[in-house]
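Hi there, hope your week has been kind to you so far. Would you mind checking whether the C-alpha cells look sensible for this chain? I owe you a coffee for this, so here goes:
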Amino acid sequence: MKTNIGITKANREKVTEVLSRLLADEFVLYTKTLRAHWNLEGHDFHTKHLFFEEHYNAIKKFTDTVAERIRKVGNYAPGTLKEFLELTHLSEKYTGDNSSHDYSAALLEDHDTIIKYIRENISKVEEDFKDAGTADFLTGIMMEHEEMAWMLRATIAK
C-alpha cells in the first residue's frame, strides 16, 4: 500500500538515508557495548558489567525504534551486517584493553560521533525534507545518547 503521509517520496527516501546510517551506527554501538559487557575485567567488574548491560539494552531499543521509524516513512530498513558496516560512521575495531576505562573511552567516542551526526541532520530532516516527526524523533534519540555519553564521561573523569 502506498505511503501517503504528506511527505514526498523523494523526501521520504532522503529521510530513510539519514535513518539507515543512524540504524547502522546504533547496531555497531550495540555490538561494541556487548563486547565491553562480555569481556570486561578489573576491580570494578561487577558494577561496570551491570552498567554496560543497561547501556546495551537501551541501545537495542534504539535500533528497533529507528528501524520502525524507517518503516513509518514508507521504506524498508537495512538489516544485514554487511549493510550496517557499509552505512556506519563508526569503526567496529577496538584497540583498548579489557578495562572499564578503555571500553568507556571507546564507547564515549562512538556516542559523541552519533550525537554529532544526529545534530547535523535534525534541521535538514525538518526543513529540507519536511519531516517534523522524524526531526522530533531524532532529537529524542540524541538526548538519550547525550545522557549515556555524560555517564561514560563521568566514569572516566580523573
Observations:
- The CA atoms of residues 17 and 70 lie 9 Å apart.
- The chain has a mean pLDDT of 96.
- The two ends are 56 Å apart (CA to CA).
